[in-house]
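README, section 4: Worked example with a bound small molecule

Sections 1 through 3 covered apo chains. Here we extend the same pipeline to holo records, where the ligand is supplied as SMILES alongside the sequence. The molecule in this example is adenosine-5'-triphosphate. Nothing else about the input changes; the structure line simply encodes the ligand pose together with the chain.
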Amino acid sequence: MKNRKIIFANQKGGVGKSTLCILFANYLAWKKQDVCVIDTDLQKTIKMQRRKDMELYEGQEEPYVVQDFDVQDPETMQQLMDSASNTEGYVLFDSPGNVSEDGLVPMFTNADFIVCPYEYEEKTLDSTGTFVQVINALRQHTPEMTAKLFFVPNRIDVRIGTKNELDMWKQTDAIFKQLGAVTPRITARAALKRINTVEITAAQREAVKPAFDFMIRRMKE
Ligand SMILES: Nc1ncnc2c1ncn2[C@@H]1O[C@H](COP(=O)(O)OP(=O)(O)OP(=O)(O)O)[C@@H](O)[C@H]1O
Ligand SMILES: [Mg+2]
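The generated complex, written as structure tokens:
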């Protein structure tokens, strides 16, 4: 199968980068696709979760590899990206918030896709806008950069939505659509708070299916 390097990124903290990275890996593994995760976040959220899971699910085989990686200089990151390019299937990267760090540049310039979760909330939209500017600046400096952007509206509270809010949501999506693809929304729900790196429940699959099927379809094109 073709290789795809996919970075979960947004300089805004807590928007669901690690959560969606784990869920996407679980979803792909459930669909019997080749997938592995590289955890470049300093907090090592995913690697630590996997460790916990392996104690809990003692004896069970890991459905996919989770590899942690300490971001240092651009040369080492380039080597990581080169070896990721030689890996079959989907290679997912969870990234730290600070996108402007030098060592991270090769991760973005070598990516096939950048998945950017966001919420409809003023501060988040500001940081997401800044994040997009950083990505665009990288594109200008790096003609060989081809990464396509997916914007994933996450943690949507379906109960709220005054006319003003709905208008803001619409305007935001219209802006992001000019820069990449906006996926179907992922709602806020308790089932998505209780995740592990071993299996995906039916309720979780149902919550992420529209967004993830949309991404998978586009990633095959
Ligand atoms: N759709 C959702 N529904 C409910 N809770 C969610 C959803 N998405 C994320 N969360 C919760 O939001 C919190 C932040 O998510 P997560 O840690 O994935 O964000 P992050 O972008 O990786 O943060 P950081 O920048 O710190 O790495 C977590 O507690 C997670 O469980
Ligand atoms: Mg995280």
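What to look for in the output: Residues 13-19, 41, 97, 154-155, 186, 188-189, 192-193 surround adenosine-5'-triphosphate (ligand 1) (CB under 6 Å). The chain has a mean pLDDT of 94.

Section 5 describes how to batch many such records.
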